[in-house]
Automatic annotation (TrEMBL):
It comes from the Bacteria. Residues 381-436 form the PucR C-terminal helix-turn-helix domain. Belongs to the CdaR family. Residues 61-205 form the RsbT co-antagonist protein RsbRD N-terminal domain. Gene3D superfamilies: PucR C-terminal helix-turn-helix domain. This is Purine catabolism regulatory protein. Residues 219-328 form the CdaR GGDEF-like domain. InterPro entries: CdaR-like_regulators, CdaR_GGDEF, PucR_C-HTH_dom, PucR_C-HTH_sf, RsbRD_N_dom. Pfam families: GGDEF_2, HTH_30, RsbRD_N.
Length: 449
């Protein structure tokens, strides 16, 4: 009877959700007919590897689906660029590890150890005071997405029948076993991290900063004592992160200290926000000189990047400056070729325009036309035109900034004007904004050739 139902799969409605439910229901009923201890035939192992190969070729889309599913059930995992990047890296590392093991076709399953990316994000969850139940929910939701994808690909590789059901059974056992193993390890690591945080000053600092950022009623003097940081002063918030990620032990803290010295501030208030992200505040009597901060970051590790919020007074300024710095970090994260230090004052309008990335890409494409191509030649013309307009169309000054001759600047501007189809001055505001978007966001808003 079960075999008859298996062969009837081809007559099921084509709706994806119906097909998934039918596969799942059929799998459960077929499983009751199986005898424990049956060895996996080599042919099935080979088919599992074929499906894994297809999924590895489509890994970017699968990870994107997993990310979206996790954020849907746990929005806190997409709250800002730092935790969203770590969550995505964990999803990718786990998916690639399992699929690579299946693609080896040796029937051994995934390695027993846990990807470091999975441990990174769980430590960030703990440091931010997020409920550990989020970890469990995220893994189960990601697992469901991967399993549904596997069933869809399996149906393309194997014709309906007992062989398909056996392939699904073998894979589900391997996948569920791997995820259970990883969850057990990361939960244990999270509990250890939490015990360490709850034991000392870091816990008090984290709790106090969280109360301030959440806008909770808090006594200013008591909060200052707990933080060892004077909240009566003017505050410049920093978000520091490493890109590309690497060995960063102490690197972010060192960069924050360099910036504090340049701002003539006392030692900065710092709070780890992840394994590769640090929040910091500089307390001063006046607004720090931006040029001094730019000069200071050159002495820091070259992987460090910094988003700087506006300088504002009091507890409210502490909170608002941090929120603004997070906006700039979200704008720049994932584009390592961008500037090493960025100021909210300079990028506020660009950040507003980039809130919807799809709309921003469409705006860039329609405004710049052929100049929006993601090619070295178009990039050179865009940057020349951007600096030329920023220097009030003064070719000599633009040449100095670009380290090239004024005639070269004029030639590139002429070529850019030709590609635009009109003089840049006719739509100066729109073109200037589009050029700023391409400069700071890069490939995310450019048209691939």
């Amino acid at each position: 009877m079960v075999d008859d139902e298996i062969h009837a799969i081809g007559r099921e409605p084509s709706d994806t959700m119906c097909a998934r439910r039918y596969f799942q229901d059929l799998y459960v009923r077929w499983h009751t007919y199986q005898m424990a201890g049956i060895s996996v035939p080599p042919a099935v192992v080979e088919l599992v590897g074929d499906v894994a190969d297809l999924m590895l070729n489509d890994i970017d889309h699968i990870v994107a689906e997993m990310d979206a599913a996790v954020v849907e059930i746990a929005p806190v995992m997409g709250a800002d660029a730092a935790i969203a990047a770590e969550m995505s890296a964990s999803n990718r590392a786990n998916a690639v590890r399992l699929l690579t093991a299946l693609a080896r076709r040796d029937g051994t399953g995934a390695p027993a150890d846990v990807p470091p990316e999975a441990l990174d994000v769980v430590r960030t969850v703990v440091r931010r005071g997020i409920d550990l139940d989020v970890i469990f929910q995220a893994y189960r939701r990601g697992q469901n997405v991967a399993w549904q994808r596997f069933m869809v690909y399996a149906a393309l590789v194997v014709a309906p029948g007992p062989e398909l059901v056996e392939l699904l059974e073998v894979t589900s056992q391997l996948m569920f076993s791997y995820v259970d193993q990883v969850i057990g390890r990361v939960i244990a690591d999270a509990q250890h991290e939490r015990e360490e945080l709850l034991g000392g000053a870091m816990a008090r600092r984290t709790e106090t900063v969280r109360l301030i950022l959440d806008g909770a009623p808090i006594d200013r003097r008591r909060a200052s004592e707990r933080l060892g940081y004077e909240l009566d002063r003017r505050h410049t918030a920093l978000v520091l992160w490493a890109e590309p990620r690497g060995e960063i032990q102490g690197v972010l803290e060192s960069a924050a200290t360099l910036l504090a010295r340049a701002a003539r501030a006392r030692p900065p208030l710092t709070l780890p926000s992840g394994t590769a992200t640090l929040w910091a505040w500089l307390g001063t009597n006046a607004t720090p000189a931006l040029d001094a901060l730019r000069d200071a970051i050159r002495s820091a590790d070259p992987t460090v990047r910094v988003a700087v919020g506006p300088t504002q007074p009091g507890i409210t300024g502490f909170r608002r400056s941090h929120a603004a710095a997070l906006v700039i970090q979200r704008l720049l994260s994932g584009h390592p070729a961008g500037e090493r230090i960025a100021f909210h004052r300079d990028l506020e309008v660009t950040a507003l325009a980039a809130q919807n990335q799809d709309h921003a890409a469409e705006f860039v494409a329609t405004t710049l036309g052929p100049l929006a191509a993601d090619t070295p030649g178009a990039a050179r013309l865009r940057e020349t035109l951007r600096v030329f307009l920023d220097e009030a169309e003064n070719a000599p000054r633009a040449g100095i900034r670009l380290h090239t001759h004024r005639n070269t600047v004029l030639q590139r501007v002429a070529r850019a004007t030709e590609l635009l189809g009109h003089h840049p001055g006719e739509r100066r505001l729109a073109i200037g904004l589009a050029l700023e978007l391409t400069h700071h966001i890069g490939p995310r808003v450019l048209a691939r050739p």
